[in-house]
Amino acid sequence: MSSTRSAAPRCAALVGPYLSGKTTLLESLLSAAGAVARKGSVQDGSAVGLTSPEAKARKMSTEIAVACCEYLGDRWTFLDCPGSVELGAEALSAAMVADVAVVVCEPDADKAMALGPLLKRLDDAGIPHMLFVNKVDTLGQDGLRIRDLVQALQAVSARPLVLREVPIREGGGVTGYVDLVSERCYQYKPHAASDQVPMPDTVREREASARQEMLEALADFDDELLAKLLDEVPPEKAEVYGQLRKDLQRDLIVPVFFGSAENDNGIRRLLKALRHETPEPAAAAERLGIAEGAGVAAQVFRTLHAPHSGKLSFARVFRGTVADGMTLAGERVSGLYRPQGGEQAKLAQAGPGEVVALGRMAGVGTGDLLTDTGPSARCPAWPEPDAPVYGLALQAVNRNDEVKLSAALQKLLEEDPGLRFEQNADLGELVLWGQGDIHLQLALDRLRGKYNLPVRSRAPQVAYKETIRKGCAQHSRFKRQTGGHGQFADVHVEVSPLPRGGGFAFSDRIVGGAIPRQFIPAVEAGLREALASGPLGFPVVDVAVALTGGQFHAVDSSEQAFRTAGRQAMAEALPKCEPVLLEPVMSVAIDCPAECTAKVQRLVTGRRGQLLGYDLRPGWTGWDEVRATMPQAEMHDMILELRSITQGVGTFTFAFDHLAELIGRLADKAVSQRHAHMAAQ
Ligand SMILES: Nc1nc2c(ncn2[C@@H]2O[C@H](COP(=O)(O)OP(=O)(O)O)[C@@H](O)[C@H]2O)c(=O)[nH]1
Ligand SMILES: [Mg+2]
């Protein structure tokens, strides 16, 4: 099939759940292609896919790793992606620029649900993808049948899954496979290419029915093939390959392969399928909205601040030739590299299809399309980061690192657009937001490791407020005699509660000049100052104050004195007005697979939430959206529980809704924590 040979290097992203074996698969692919002499391992941190100190320390992928190889004369770039749901944005970025995504999964039907959101994202973006069921070495003789797994996975895929090979199972488990197009039969050999063997009689029937299913799936998208099947005319192999290629390219079908990355089984089969069926880079370019034409176009999919080389923008070239020193997006390319795992080899130039790292492009960000004719422009198809669901309050261990901290956070945000930070002035807190604890701990590790900035983190404070339940009249006098002239101000106020959301209202009911006009704004300012921290220690809201009377002294009264009197009046009045704590309540929409809806509802009520109802999640088949209101105090670690009851796929969005009175044990606890916090300041 030389017609499928491509001069331009093609690119496959390895995506799928954490621990499914992507990094091991990369190692196996590189080893089958002869690009590594000896297979590295995840356990000892020697795998090519573990590039950063954080990844090596955790023995898990924490960012996209790039690795190139050549197989049967074709050049390939593999992008090994993190599998953690918290780092999903990174995986999607890689898939965006790839020609095909290989979704790696485990042979476990109970874990099928975990693949749903990833498959949907790939479909939404129109990214061709195939499934690789890894770890078939763990299937015993009576273990799960691949066809049952495919059926379970079909429930979470909008596109038909098309089995491309059937397993041969003998003795202990899967020992080989029959390729359903060539109908050749292969026997696995440990860490080596499989041997072709005669087809055992035991699989003949299964092979024929699986092949028929495959052809019928293809015929759904091609009338000519359908006509042949109806007439029982066997299609040519070349035609079948052609259909497979065409349907994969248009993301109409999801071919399914299997094997064992650990034992290097099924790897050459996968490589050959990639070779024959992966679309040309032009298809990805079209998907990204890159028009054909002259000039350079490269799409940035990752940004890294590397300790030695400085900022690196990882990009795939789709048009023209990128050269070191040229001007791209109005900036000079200062260093052009071919990434290979954690290493960068210097390059003079790179052409269409290649994945490169561009040095020191200060104004360029992930998602930008770079051309040699204008400024960088964000790719319109580029996915927006998911809304954050987990926050941690940060504090530099060394106080004088505060300025360095915000500069380093800016860099982290450039590397990871899914992070946000928020300066909460009321609470004096810097809160880092992201997708979960792994995501944020990773950011903190980078602050410590790369920027030498040790930081402490804790759960963010809840923005409690307080108000009053009843009113009172208050007379306060401020009088001081110090040496020369003294200070004097006397005020009568009436304090009363306002409805929720009322804020603060001041009215002036002074008659007959009991307090001269010019001092009244000072009284109001003093009253307002006292609202910053009420008797419970929180900002006071929903209070009205009327200034009803007072006295002044011709010499000793001043704006300052009336301001102090106002503040004092408020401080003295509030404790008499039955202060009560108000807690922020959020409106929340929780998305989950429908089989988890009941559990999610229990999660909501278990966290003092009020269920408002649930509906189908718009645009998602088999998913619900549960609507509720929930106290902010209950939401800090909610994502952890939500993930644990939804195989990691549940998610939510939230927004402030209202303040609600909080009394009893929880209120007492919040107040005593606040007082302890204030005492420690
Ligand atoms: N039995 C078996 N284990 C595997 C296979 N592939 C990977 N593993 C193991 O699964 C674990 C996770 O592998 P890794 O490649 O890091 O998964 P990733 O998170 O998808 O990158 C490691 O302990 C691997 O040794 C396989 O084919 N068979
Ligand atoms: Mg990995």
Give the topology.
Elements: E1 10-15, H1 22-32, H2 53-58, E2 65-71, E3 74-80, H3 88-97, E4 100-105, H4 116-124, E5 129-133, H5 146-154, E6 161-163, E7 165-170, E8 173-179, E9 185-189, E10 192-197, H6 201-219, H7 223-230, H8 237-249, E11 254-258, H9 267-277, H10 281-287, E12 297-306, E13 310-319, E14 322-323, E15 327-328, E16 331-332, E17 336-340, E18 343-346, E19 349-350, E20 355-359, E21 368-371, E22 377-378, E23 390-396, H11 402-415, E24 420-424, E25 429-434, H12 437-451, E26 455-458, E27 465-468, E28 472-480, E29 487-497, E30 504-508, H13 520-530, E31 543-551, H14 559-573, E32 579-593, H15 597-606, E33 610-616, E34 623-631, H16 638-644, E35 651-662, H17 665-680
Parallel strand pairs: 1-3, 1-4, 4-5, 5-11, 6-11, 30-31
Antiparallel strand pairs: 2-3, 7-8, 8-9, 9-10, 12-13, 12-21, 13-20, 14-19, 15-16, 17-18, 17-20, 21-22, 23-25, 23-26, 24-25, 27-32, 28-29, 29-31, 32-34, 32-35, 33-34
Helix pairs in contact: 6-7, 11-12, 13-14
Bound molecules: guanosine-5'-diphosphate (GDP) and magnesium ion.
Give a written overview of the molecule.
This protein has 5 domains: 8-285, 3-Layer(aba) Sandwich (Rossmann fold), CATH 3.40.50.300; 290-378, Beta Barrel (Elongation Factor Tu (Ef-tu), domain 3), CATH 2.40.30.10; 390-458, 2-Layer Sandwich (Alpha-Beta Plaits), CATH 3.30.70; 466-577, 2-Layer Sandwich (Ribosomal Protein S5, domain 2), CATH 3.30.230.10; 582-676, Alpha-Beta Plaits. It has 17 helices and 35 strands. The strands form 8 sheets. It has a 7-stranded mixed β-sheet, sandwiched between helices. Strands 18-17-20-13-12-21-22 form a 7-stranded antiparallel β-sheet. α6 packs across α7 (223-230) and α13 crosses α14. The N and C termini lie far apart (73 Å). The site of magnesium ion has 7 residues, from α1.
